[in-house]
Design goal:
By secondary structure, this protein is of the alpha+beta class. It contains five helices and 18 strands. The longest helix is centred in the last third of the chain and has 26 residues.
């Protein structure tokens, strides 16, 4: 059986509580609900199993980490097999070894088998986003995964501000690009910058879709956790940069939509950016700055 031309995708936009087991249970129920409504690919948000742990530098938060494969990916694999859905497991707090942790997305095929991982490459260090304390930068590159329902790629949150990440994922073969996210407002900034921050976020995602002729999808969390008010607005964008669907700022919800993979072929043919890339002239991209 060939890869279907059209696939129904679900993005899960959730709020998270303090109990990891309860968060995972709720996530499994949401995946089941999405599948019952026709979704064949389901993408979860960044660090979906817990509250966002990086607002402080706290060694106790490492207790949230687990190996991959591990208990969370095991239950997701069982459900993927049962429902015959592809699950993009947002991201997991991965314990690779003592003192070595990653922010890692796992792609599980519709037969329940783990196709591989993407480890977050760009690690932020901003107020209340102290991820450099917790996570080692990824070392798996920017892969594409050949799922039952089409080739997909995954980058995570902060990666979405870097056009190189999206481009390399597409060059690996992806047609659907997911950005599991945990982004929100610092209360003191919301009044002055809140609207422009969301606009910048969506603008970057739209630009990836246009420049690469692909579908771009980003599930984000909602709710207030300590200092951060996560702004939701999970979004799906077509290869022409048009917003297909966009979530609420405050409410947990599931976004369901159809991706016609034929649009990828059409967009890339009519806007042949991949054809016209000057790969002979881009050596400078490997330099930090022009004084090196």
């Amino acid at each position: 059986m060939g890869v279907p031309k059209t696939v129904c995708v679900a993005l899960i936009q959730s709020s998270c509580g303090n109990d990891k087991a309860s968060n995972i249970k709720a996530t499994l129920e949401q995946i089941r609900s999405a599948a019952n409504q026709g979704a064949r690919i389901v993408c979860l948000q960044e660090l979906f199993a817990s509250r966002y742990p990086c607002q402080t530098e706290d060694h106790d938060q490492f207790k949230l980490a687990e190996p991959i494969p591990g208990p969370t990916t095991a239950v997701l694999s069982e459900l993927a097999l049962e429902l015959e859905v592809v699950i993009v497991a947002g991201s997991v707090f991965e314990r690779r070894a003592a003192g070595l942790y990653h922010n890692t997305s796992v792609v599980i095929n519709a037969d329940g088998k783990q196709l591989g991982c993407y480890r977050k490459m760009h690690i932020p260090d901003d107020p209340f986003y102290y991820e450099k304390f917790y996570f080692t930068p990824g070392d798996l590159g920017f892969p594409s995964f050949s799922t039952r329902y089409g080739p997909i790629g995954v980058c995570i949150c902060w990666d979405q501000w870097f056009p190189e990440a999206a481009r390399l994922t597409i060059l690996a073969g992806a047609e659907l690009l997911f950005f599991p996210t945990a982004i929100g407002w610092i209360p003191t900034e919301k009044r002055l910058y809140g609207e422009s921050q969301i606009d910048a976020w969506v603008t970057m995602l739209r630009s990836h879709a246009i420049a690469n002729g692909c579908f771009v999808m980003a599930p984000n969390r909602v709710g207030t956790e300590r200092e951060l008010e996560f702004w939701g607005n999970s979004v799906a964008i077509d290869p022409y940069g048009q917003v297909i669907v966009q979530g609420s700022t405050v409410d947990p919800e599931m976004l369901l939509f159809e991706c016609d993979r034929g649009q990828v072929e059409t967009a890339r043919t009519h806007w042949p950016f991949l054809r016209d890339r000057r790969i002979d002239a881009y050596e400078g991209l490997s330099r930090r700055w022009n004084d090196e």
